[in-house]
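Researcher: I need the complex structure. Ligand is iron/sulfur cluster. Inputs:
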Amino acid sequence: MGQPRDRVKDMLDRPLRDLRISVTDRCNFRCTYCMPAEIFGAGYAFLEKEKLLTFEEITRLTGIFTKLGVEKIRITGGEPLLRGELPKLIRMIDSVNGVQDIALTTNGSLLAKQAHALKEAGVRRVTVSLDSLDDTRFGLMNGVGYSVKKVLDNIEVAAQAGLPVKINMVVKKGTNDEDILPMARYFKEKGHALRFIEFMDVGNTNGWKLDEVVPSRTIVDMIHAEMPLEPVEEGYYGEVASRYRYVGTNVEIGFISSVTQPFCATCTRARLSAEGRLYTCLFASKGVDLRTPLRNGASDDDLEQLIRGTWKKRGDRYSEVRLNQSSDLKIEKAEMSYLGG
Ligand SMILES: Nc1nc2c(ncn2[C@@H]2O[C@H](COP(=O)(O)OP(=O)(O)OP(=O)(O)O)[C@@H](O)[C@H]2O)c(=O)[nH]1
Ligand SMILES: C[S@@+](CC[C@H](N)C(=O)[O-])C[C@H]1O[C@@H](n2cnc3c(N)ncnc32)[C@H](O)[C@@H]1O
Ligand code: SF4
Ligand code: SF4
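Model: Output:
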């Protein structure tokens, strides 16, 4: 694996390390906190096929990002497993010099069919989102009545295919906070790392209110009282989750506290939307169009300069700025399902 030619840093001295690639803005779920059904209904204008970056375009851009320091790729969306022939894309990305890790975030509904092929193509690990073990609550939260058992079965298929699995649970007060302990008990037993995500004010349509956020500290205390926890050291610079281990086991649990303990100071993540816009923050309103130059014959050097210049100008620290505010900052944001969660 070659070393990056020139690791670029932003205005706050943060290097570019991770690229989160959204491969589609579509999803078969309508999670209330992400794609509420009343907004993302039948009339919603999703991206047309010709607007999506092709696999060749994504791979070419990945090669340029690695020259600037990117080592870790996360495939996301929308629901990434809705994109046809995903294993083919994974194989192409895996062949890019400098890519050291390819992870996938998915709602798990289509995982059983594809787990083996994804693993073989080069996916190193998957994160499956699941917010409850109760069918009624999960069905309401995913917006389409999708069953818990199917997701749990698919998680085990992925694990048996040799993919380490993490679970993401978004916690909303009054909606699924009663699921915190049952989820912790279940995944402790299964041996998969569960991560609790504070409900965030992403996008413009999820009706976010600070009083629906359950602070990670509360969840740590709640779990520790029943199943003692000990902290685990940061695994890498800028790690998103604070990790703990159940005492006496190797099973981990994580907390993603972007509302109450923002981690902008070490944020190394760039996001590439399915239509090829580069976003330097999850809460950015505008992305930089890479598809137009890509399709108009720009050279790799031109594209590298464009990406380098964008990262160098980056000063984003939305979650830190929002801290201590009782509401979201009233700015126009891109939707998470569009720019890649
Ligand atoms: N505010 C904010 N939230 C983030 C950011 N990155 C990830 N998240 C949130 O954390 C969730 C989990 O991210 P994942 O991609 O599953 O995890 P990760 O921590 O990057 O993954 P690992 O590589 O396993 O450490 C995302 O779905 C977001 O909700 C970020 O840069 N800013
Ligand atoms: C946007 S989804 C895309 C990938 C895939 N569809 C999935 O759900 O895993 C990525 C992650 O973002 C999380 N997410 C979405 N909206 C969120 C919000 N408002 N607050 C916190 N996390 C959110 C989801 O739970 C999921 O784990
Ligand atoms: S969180 Fe994932 S599964 Fe849920 S609506 Fe958003 S993109 Fe779809
Ligand atoms: S809010 Fe923006 S800058 Fe802060 S951690 Fe998230 S993506 Fe990074």
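Model: Summary of the prediction. Residues 258, 262-264, 267, 269, 281-283, 316-319 surround iron/sulfur cluster (ligand 4) (CB under 6 Å).
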